[in-house]
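pinging the channel bc i need a second pair of eyes. not urgent but kinda urgent?? the chain im working w is below, pasted from the shared doc
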Amino acid sequence: MMRAMSTPSPDHAPRGRGVYLLPNALTTGCLFSGFYAVIAAIDGNFDRAGLAVFAAMLFDGLDGRVARWTRTESAFGKEYDSLADMVAFGLAPAIVMYQWGVERIAEYGRAWGRFGWVATFFFAVAAALRLARFNTRATSQDKRYFEGLPSPSAAAVVAAYVWFSSTWRGPGGLTELILAFCTTVLAGALMVSSFPYMSLKQVDVDKRVRYYYFIVVPVFLALIAIDPPTMLLAMFSTYALSAPVQWVVRRLRRL
């Protein structure tokens, strides 16, 4: 007599393929923030454009953690996150910087104009290369460090510079525009460099921390609340320069 086929119970039924809502919704928030930064820059609202890039960083920091906490990580989510990062931390900062004033270098001659758009394009290319390198080496890389400046941090430097400059004054003369050009190129170069940057993704929020953290963290948050563009520019510029400065110090000690 043929045995009847048993149907799997609901508890042991195989999980169908699909897209997890919460982490991918946060990734969509990152993508939208980058898109809005571009729109705000085109409309001349550079303070909002800078703020939108930092909003994208917030969403980008949450989607991965939420996926791990809820055990909803997926290959689709990783690919979607990478594409959203390219828009929010590659294209958006480059366009925001160009719209803010790098294009005004053209007023001082065609050569300066070409350097202006080449600088912003270089940043976008560097972000794409940085993300591609991270994706291919994610499994073999030391989780405590990043190889090269992370693209969100590079975007933060550019966005904070624009936000700071647009808050205090508009684009000035050639000197200020050259400084903007150099900031964009330097941020892009650090992304594709091999300098090791400390990773904050491995911070375990469940472990005990020292008491002075309860003083330092509120102080930093208070300073950011008082003057966001100035403090964010100072913080992310310090982080961006920390790795090359440490490399120079180590080389000097060997002499």
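so The first helix runs from residue 21 to 42. and Strands lie at 145-147, 196-198. — does that match what u expected or am i reading it wrong
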